[in-house]
C-alpha cells in the first residue's frame, strides 16, 4: 500500500510538472502567433477590419511599418520572457508546496494507521507508533490582532519568532542582516520594550508588541537574560493556539540558510537543536556507572543526552506542545529555576508516583546543520571536511563575546574569509 501510494504521488508530481511545462509551451507559442498576426497588439489591430476605416490612417512607408513590427515583436518577446520567469518562480514555489504536502500526507497516513480502526499490531517490523500528533483547531478569538499579523507574515503557517529588548540590539542587528541575506520572509520580532518598534521599522522586519500584561512586561523590560528567556514560553502559546508552527530563535543566532526549505522534519511536537558536541552527547548514549561494592552487579547503565537548547526549537501546534509551554511557564513562575533545565526536565522525565510526565514527541536537529558554537570552535573550524559544509544556523550559545564571534562567522561563511575564525580561543578565557 505504501508503494502504491508513493507511486501515485510520483505520478501526480509528474502530471503536475508536465502540465506546467505544457502551459509554458502553449504560452510561448500563443505569444509568437500573436506577434505575427497582430503586430500592433490587440487593441489597435481591430481597426483594419472595421468598416468605417479612415484610409488616411493607413498612410505610412513600408520601412516604417516593419520597424514598428520589429519593435512590437521585441516588446512581445520581453513580455513572454517575463511571463516565463514568473512561471518558473511559480514552479519553484509549487515544488516546495508539493514537498510540504508530501511530508504532511506521509505524517497524516501514519496518524490514520495509528488512530484508525487497525487494532491488530500486524507483522514483525511493520509496526510504527504515533509521533506526529494532530494539530489543534486554530482559535482566532484568542488574539485577533496577532492572527491578522501572522496571516500576513507567516509562510505555510510557519513563522520564526524572536523575543528582544533593547539590551540585545547589536546581536539582533547581525541576525536580521543574516535573515535578509538568505531571504527569509516569515520572521517576526516580539518587542519587549518600546524602543523595539522603531528599531524593527528602520531595519525593515515585522514587529509585534504584546498587549500590556503587567507581570510579564516588567520582566521583559528590565529582566536579565534568564528572566527574558523564561518569558518566551508564555508568549508562544498564542501563536500555537492560532494554529501556527513556531520556530523560536534566540538573538545570538545567525541564519546561513532558510531552515524551512528542506531542513526541518516536522514529524514531532518538539524539534530542537542540541547543546551536544558529538554523536554521543547530541543523540544520546548509554553511560555506564560503576559501583565496585556491588561486585557482580557493579555496573549500572544510565541514559544520557546533552540538553535540548531552549534557544532554538520548532514547535508544531499540538496539544503536547501547548502543554509543554504551560508546564514550563508554571514551574518558572513558582521558582528561580533556569528555563532550559525546566524545558528539558518536562520533556524527558517519565511519569512517577505523584507526577505525570509530558507525552510529547521529540526530535533533535542535526548538529552540523543547526550548529552550536562549541561544535564550531572546537571541531568544525579545525576539520578540513566539516569546514566545507555550510550550516543552516550557527548559535553562539557557548561564548560570551557574541558580537565578535558572530562577525567572524559571517566573514567565514558568507564572505569567504578562510581565516576569520582562527583568532578565537576554543572557549572563553
Ligand atoms: C479621417 O482622418 C482625418 C485626418 O486625421 C480626419 O479629419 C477625419 O475626421 C477622419 N475621418 C474619420 C471618418 O475618422
Ligand atoms: C557520527 O555518526 C554519523 C552517522 O551515524 C557517522 O557517519 C559519523 O562517522 C559519526 N562520527 C563520529 C566522529 O563517530
From TrEMBL:
<keyword id="KW-0472">Membrane</keyword>
<keyword id="KW-0735">Signal-anchor</keyword>
<dbReference type="InterPro" id="IPR005069">
    <property type="entry name" value="Nucl-diP-sugar_transferase"/>
</dbReference>
<feature type="coiled-coil region">
    <location>
        <begin position="77"/>
        <end position="111"/>
    </location>
</feature>
<keyword id="KW-0333">Golgi apparatus</keyword>
<dbReference type="InterPro" id="IPR029044">
    <property type="entry name" value="Nucleotide-diphossugar_trans"/>
</dbReference>
<dbReference type="InterPro" id="IPR044290">
    <property type="entry name" value="RRA1/2/3"/>
</dbReference>
<feature type="domain" description="Nucleotide-diphospho-sugar transferase">
    <location>
        <begin position="184"/>
        <end position="406"/>
    </location>
</feature>
<dbReference type="Pfam" id="PF03407">
    <property type="entry name" value="Nucleotid_trans"/>
</dbReference>
<keyword id="KW-0328">Glycosyltransferase</keyword>
<keyword id="KW-0175">Coiled coil</keyword>
<dbReference type="GO" id="GO:0080147">
    <property type="term" value="P:root hair cell development"/>
</dbReference>
<feature type="transmembrane region" description="Helical">
    <location>
        <begin position="20"/>
        <end position="43"/>
    </location>
</feature>
<dbReference type="GO" id="GO:0016757">
    <property type="term" value="F:glycosyltransferase activity"/>
</dbReference>
<dbReference type="GO" id="GO:0071555">
    <property type="term" value="P:cell wall organization"/>
</dbReference>
<dbReference type="GO" id="GO:0000139">
    <property type="term" value="C:Golgi membrane"/>
</dbReference>
<keyword id="KW-1133">Transmembrane helix</keyword>
<comment type="similarity">
    <text>Belongs to the glycosyltransferase 77 family.</text>
</comment>
<keyword id="KW-0961">Cell wall biogenesis/degradation</keyword>
<keyword id="KW-0808">Transferase</keyword>
<keyword id="KW-0812">Transmembrane</keyword>
<protein>
    <recommendedName>
        <fullName>Glycosyltransferase</fullName>
        <ecNumber>2.4.2.-</ecNumber>
    </recommendedName>
</protein>
Amino acid at each position: 500500500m505504501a508503494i502504491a501510494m508513493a507511486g501515485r504521488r510520483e505520478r501526480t508530481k509528474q502530471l503536475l510538472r508536465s502540465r506546467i511545462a505544457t502551459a509554458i509551451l502553449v504560452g510561448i507559442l500563443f505569444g509568437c502567433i500573436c506577434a505575427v498576426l497582430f503586430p500592433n497588439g490587440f487593441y489597435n489591430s481591430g481597426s483594419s477590419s472595421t468598416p468605417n476605416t479612415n484610409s488616411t490612417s493607413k498612410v505610412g512607408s513600408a520601412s516604417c511599418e516593419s520597424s514598428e513590427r520589429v519593435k512590437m515583436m521585441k516588446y512581445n518577446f520581453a513580455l513572454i520572457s517575463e511571463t516565463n520567469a514568473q512561471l518558473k518562480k511559480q514552479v519553484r514555489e509549487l515544488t516546495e508546496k508539493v514537498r510540504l504536502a508530501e511530508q504532511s500526507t506521509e505524517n497524516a497516513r501514519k496518524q490514520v494507521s495509528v488512530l484508525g480502526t487497525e487494532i491488530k499490531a500486524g507483522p514483525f517490523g511493520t509496526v510504527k507508533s504515533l509521533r506526529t500528533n494532530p494539530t489543534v483547531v486554530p482559535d482566532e478569538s484568542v488574539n485577533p490582532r496577532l492572527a491578522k499579523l501572522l496571516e500576513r507574515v507567516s509562510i505555510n503557517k510557519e513563522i520564526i519568532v524572536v523575543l528582544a529588548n533593547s539590551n540585545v540590539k547589536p546581536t539582533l542587528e547581525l541576525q536580521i542582516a543574516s535573515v535578509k541575506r538568505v531571504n527569509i520572509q516569515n520572521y517576526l520580532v516580539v518587542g519587549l520594550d518600546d524602543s523595539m518598534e522603531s528599531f524593527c521599522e528602520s531595519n525593515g522586519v515585522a514587529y509585534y508588541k504584546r498587549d500590556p500584561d503587567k507581570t510579564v512586561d516588567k520582566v521583559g523590560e528590565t529582566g536579565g537574560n534568564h528572566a527574558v528567556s523564561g518569558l518566551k514560553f508564555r508568549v508562544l502559546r498564542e501563536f500555537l493556539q492560532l494554529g501556527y508552527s513556531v520556530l523560536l530563535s534566540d538573538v545570538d543566532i545567525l541564519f546561513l540558510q532558510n531552515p524551512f526549505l528542506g531542513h526541518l522534519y516536522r514529524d514531532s511536537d518538539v524539534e530542537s537543536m542540541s547543546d551536544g558536541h558529538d554523536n554521543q552527547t547530541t543523540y544520546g548514549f548509554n553511560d555506564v556507572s560503576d559501583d565496585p561494592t556491588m561486585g557482580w552487579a557493579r555496573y549500572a547503565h544510565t541514559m544520557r543526552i546533552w540538553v535540548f537548547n531552549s534557544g532554538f526549537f520548532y514547535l508544531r501546534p499540538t496539544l503536547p506542545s501547548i502543554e509543554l509551554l504551560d508546564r514550563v511557564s508554571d514551574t518558572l513562575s513558582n521558582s528561580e529555576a533556569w528555563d532550559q533545565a525546566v524545558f528539558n526536565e518536562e520533556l524527558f522525565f517519565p511519569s512517577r508516583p505523584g507526577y505525570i510526565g509530558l507525552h510529547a514527541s521529540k526530535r533533535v536537529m542535526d548538529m552540523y546543520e543547526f550548529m552550536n558554537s562549541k561544535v564550531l570552535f572546537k571541531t568544525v573550524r579545525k576539520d578540513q571536511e566539516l569546514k566545507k559544509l555550510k550550516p543552516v544556523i550557527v548559535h553562539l550559545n557557548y561564548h560570551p563575546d557574541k558580537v565578535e564571534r558572530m562577525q567572524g562567522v559571517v566573514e567565514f561563511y558568507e564572505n569567504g574569509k578562510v581565516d576569520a575564525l582562527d583568532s578565537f580561543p576554543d572557549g572563553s578565557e
